[in-house]
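[SOLVED] Need 3D model of a two-part complex

Original post:
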Amino acid sequence: MTTQQLIDQIKLKKSFLCIGLDVDLNKVPQHLLKEEDPIFAFNKAIIDATHHLCVAYKPNTAFYEAYGLKGWESLDKTIKYLNQNHPEIFTIADAKRGDIGNTSKMYAKAFFEDFGFDSVTVAPYMGQDSVEPFLEFKDKHTILLALTSNAGAYDFQTQTVDGKEVYKHVLETSKSWKNAANLMYVVGATKAEYLADIRKIIPDSFLLVPGVGAQGGNLKEVCKYGMIASVGLLINSSRGIIYASNGKDFAEVAAEKASELQIEMAAILESL
Amino acid sequence: MTTQQLIDQIKLKKSFLCIGLDVDLNKVPQHLLKEEDPIFAFNKAIIDATHHLCVAYKPNTAFYEAYGLKGWESLDKTIKYLNQNHPEIFTIADAKRGDIGNTSKMYAKAFFEDFGFDSVTVAPYMGQDSVEPFLEFKDKHTILLALTSNAGAYDFQTQTVDGKEVYKHVLETSKSWKNAANLMYVVGATKAEYLADIRKIIPDSFLLVPGVGAQGGNLKEVCKYGMIASVGLLINSSRGIIYASNGKDFAEVAAEKASELQIEMAAILESL
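Solution:
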């Protein structure tokens, strides 16, 4: 998917919501556990109920790997279901991968070609040659961790290198990499006040913003500092939507929660 | 496996060799491709031929993920084969994972409990709460990326924060984390001269050292600066061993190459 196609979808749906599909079998409604594939059954129900309210889905691979081969199979079914039924939706493998060049290439092949995701999240610690193999894929997007939403972000990301924080150094350096136009960035909503500075470095890039809701981030604040003319934001919510109810009405309640966010987003987009 | 058990194995086998099982179907001998599971067939042959010469095996997960569900299954068969037949061998999932706390816990569960690996490599960018969930597992080891062997290591890892490089900051900071005794570190052999400084910060920790051979690192240099009384080194070689021949004699030639390194290691250990 091209960035323009994503922007078009945002304008069409009046939404820049991404729903995180982080399926924990301890948290899904109990009646699903008797399904042959409870993880996929859960995802399918959530997707069927919410696809008109969001522009992206983001399964975090950890939740699938934790269930071994069966989990990996559920992830495969989920991305194939999305690509077959909702090819207009942007898909994100939240995998936080990154390795030396020839190895990163294998990861890129796995997520872009085999699974068919539109994008994958990548960790920057190993530098340029660990990220560029992901950037080679046409109309695929690499979402680089910049400033994450967790407490540990203050351990290294906000440390100052020559008067500039490590995460800013990541943003600046990555701009010079080959096919940098295929880069997006993860910036946590819990640090909305950093967004003004971030926009000075990457004025045009899309940001994937986790941490609205469960982690305490505020949508209006994020938009105030992070939104650009082409929107440039994907706001992720996981637990606040998919686990809003654990009864038989879980998909319906998820849609209600997604709708609340979409309505808020539509109002913000109108004022653009 | 405890660290002491690993040290005992090193002394018994007179080897601190780790063999990287990075299986690329474009590089394995062609006659294996007609096997039902060529990846596992390759690994089994390599393990059968080399297990007496090394103390650790390190499959890099990227190479398995690149083959989708089948690859994941081959990885599962490989670790189970190792645990059943060679429980004395230290196993490393080279996965370079790391995510917010509850998500890292899922990765830890996947690699330590479901697969049954002794250790996993983890990226430090997201800080303390992304690493500590891995450290909670008794007799399991978390191998934190410190200074990697690739060119991109100079992009962020060697940048200076308050007069100290980022990777040193990672080493120092991680020492205060809960269950830090379960930490080991990745330090690339291509940067042997850094090892003296690194040993000042972490005098007792095991280091996993990739980059000997194919990437140009030198074994003697690494030992000179990095070895401690309890050895404290695992030297990894992947391509230089497993792809030394791509004929029917591939396992035999792999054993020869592993043996060359083991003999060199035995001599170094004797001079300790």
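Edit: The longest strand of chain A covers residues 90-97.
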